[in-house]
TrEMBL record:
One of its GO terms (cellular component) is cytosol. Keywords: Oxidoreductase, Pyridoxal phosphate. Residues 341-439 form the Glycine dehydrogenase C-terminal domain. GO terms for molecular function: glycine binding; glycine dehydrogenase (decarboxylating) activity; pyridoxal phosphate binding. It catalyses: N(6)-[(R)-lipoyl]-L-lysyl-[glycine-cleavage complex H protein] + glycine + H(+) = N(6)-[(R)-S(8)-aminomethyldihydrolipoyl]-L-lysyl-[glycine-cleavage complex H protein] + CO2. Its EC number is 1.4.4.2. This is glycine dehydrogenase (aminomethyl-transferring). One of its GO terms (biological process) is glycine decarboxylation via glycine cleavage system. InterPro entries: GDC-P_C, GDC_P, PyrdxlP-dep_Trfase, PyrdxlP-dep_Trfase_major, PyrdxlP-dep_Trfase_small. It comes from Treponema primitia (strain ATCC BAA-887 / DSM 12427 / ZAS-2). PANTHER family: GLYCINE DEHYDROGENASE (DECARBOXYLATING), MITOCHONDRIAL (PTHR11773:SF1), GLYCINE DEHYDROGENASE, DECARBOXYLATING (PTHR11773). Pfam families: GcvP2_C. NCBIfam families: PRK04366.1.
Length: 477
């Protein structure tokens, strides 16, 4: 498929903007381009066809089963989109006078109140643009808190070896030293290792619960107490909140700060690079350090002298919060827990269906996701987790997360989500069984998969070693 730059032809175009109804404003010379932007010239028909063709080459929840572990790729109700498209939300500007956007401010307050209730936090901020950005913001709160107490020796953040990769990265970006601790044989935090790791230099612990292998840590209250007794703070990675929201609150587990992936738990768009929202909540002791909105409506810097400042402009991606609010209002307080229960039910149902051929890496019921290992299949038949994932695409479903968490060899992490039907899960199990039989009779066939997708199996080594990251404009006419 050609890039849109290759399709453009000089002289072509389309009039998509209405005539201006205000006087034209001349910009000063400094920000004006000296050379015209290298944008492709196409008519509206070709633009429409180009993006329609791109959509056909992508796989989304609207195309089929998408059990991507720890990512919660669930269906987003179209009602959310309709609400976010209302002109009173869509057409506002963050610099409007406060009295003209009272409805929008009310919505922010409403959503914040709901999320505080769900998480057990005392304050909520919507500035962070994504989950990892929320992690960074939360850790900056930790740093500001310790510094406010002149406790500058606390320079280390403890992270389990099963954590999401963004956790150690966020801690490092916030200027902390990362201390990695191992998981126990049960997939949960090794308490002895944690006790050995904490000390006067402990700034905090980052933890996901349920964790990355889909288990709710039964020792969570002891874990957070160990960190608190050492003088540290506890950070809750909200990536897996989908399994417990409305049932168990991070604040009641002993966590001091939390970020929420609104695209994972609260049904806003996921993927494509954004926009997103990694809302951050915290307990009262951290509230003075939250980011400023930059609008003056929160009292301004004069009334928040300890704030870490802005981490993004204004209130962040407002329309994402609108979508999350619409979702919560649709569900109501009684139905939010049902979402979590259905997510857990679906994961356990699929895990039990395929258990005879694909035993879970850890015994016992799971939460919203589970992890299986294809280590034996690779050793006996030469079919790796990557081979299996490619072959699943020929079965009309997106593959689960592979090779993560790192503590499970040849891992497949499966998250069915609560929006999938029993029939879909039954069909997924049948696909898993069919591929198991194929691995016994024709394991070499996996090395060519996928065969039915738009793009076949790429050369992964060449893609990694010789990536094409730039377009040569001289090739375009």
């Amino acid at each position: 498929m050609k890039l849109i730059f290759e399709k453009g032809k000089k002289g072509r175009g389309c009039s998509i903007l209405p005539p201006s109804d205000v006087p034209e404003a001349k910009l000063v010379s400094s920000p004006v381009r000296k050379i015209p932007a290298k944008l492709p010239s196409l008519d509206e028909n070709e633009i429409s066809r180009h993006y329609s063709a791109l959509a056909k080459r992508a796989f989304g929840v609207n195309d089929g089963f998408y059990p991507l572990g720890s990512c919660t790729m669930k269906y987003n109700p179209k009602l959310n989109e309709e609400i976010a498209g209302l002109s009173g939300f869509r057409d506002i500007h963050p610099l409007q006078p406060a009295h003209t956007v009272q409805g929008c401010l009310k919505l922010l307050d409403t959503c914040a109140a709901y999320l505080r209730e769900i998480t057990g936090m005392d304050a909520m901020n919507f500035q962070p643009a994504a989950g990892a950005h929320g992690e960074l913001t939360g850790l900056l709160l930790f740093k500001a808190y310790h510094r406010s107490r002149s406790d500058v020796a606390r320079t280390k953040i403890i992270v389990p070896d099963s954590a999401h990769g963004t956790n150690p990265a966020s801690a490092a970006m916030a200027g902390f030293q990362v201390v990695n601790i191992p998981s126990g044989k049960d997939g949960c935090v090794d308490l002895a290792a944690l006790k050995a790791a904490v000390g006067p230099d402990t700034a905090g612990l980052m933890l996901t619960n349920p964790n990355t292998v889909g288990i709710f840590d039964p020792n969570i209250l002891e874990i957070t107490e160990i960190v608190h007794k050492a003088g540290g703070l506890n950070y809750y990675d909200g990536a897996n909140l989908n399994a417990i929201m409305g049932i168990v609150r991070p604040g009641d587990m002993g966590f001091d700060a939390v970020h929420l992936n609104l695209h994972k738990s609260f049904s806003t768009p996921h993927g494509g690079g954004g926009p997103g929202c990694g809302a951050v909540g915290c307990k009262k002791l951290l509230a003075p350090f939250l980011p400023l909105s930059g609008t003056g409506l929160d009292g301004g810097a004069a009334n928040q002298p300890q704030s870490i400042g802005r981490v993004r402009a204004f209130y962040g991606n407002f329309l994402i919060v609108v979508r999350a609010t619409a979702y919560l209002l649709t569900l109501g307080k009684e139905t939010v827990p049902e979402i979590a229960r259905n997510a857990v039910l679906n994961a356990n149902y699929l895990m039990e269906l395929i258990n005879k051929k694909y035993p879970a890496a850890y015994a016992g019921p799971c939460m919203h996701e589970f992890v299986i290992s294809l280590d034996e299949l690779k050793n006996t038949k030469g079919v790796s987790a990557l081979d299996f994932a490619k072959a699943l695409q020929d079965r009309g479903m997106h593959p689960p997360t592979i090779y993560f968490p790192l503590i499970v060899h040849e891992a497949l992490m499966v998250e069915p989500t609560e929006t999938e039907s029993r029939e879909t899960l039954d069909a997924a199990a049948e696909a898993f069984f069919a591929l198991f039989a194929q691995a016994q009779s024709a394991p070499e066939s996996f090395h060519a998969a996928p065969l039915s997708t738009v793009i076949g199996r790429p050369d992964d080594v060449k893609a990694a070693r010789q990536p094409v990251l730039r377009f040569n404009y001289t090739q375009a006419s």
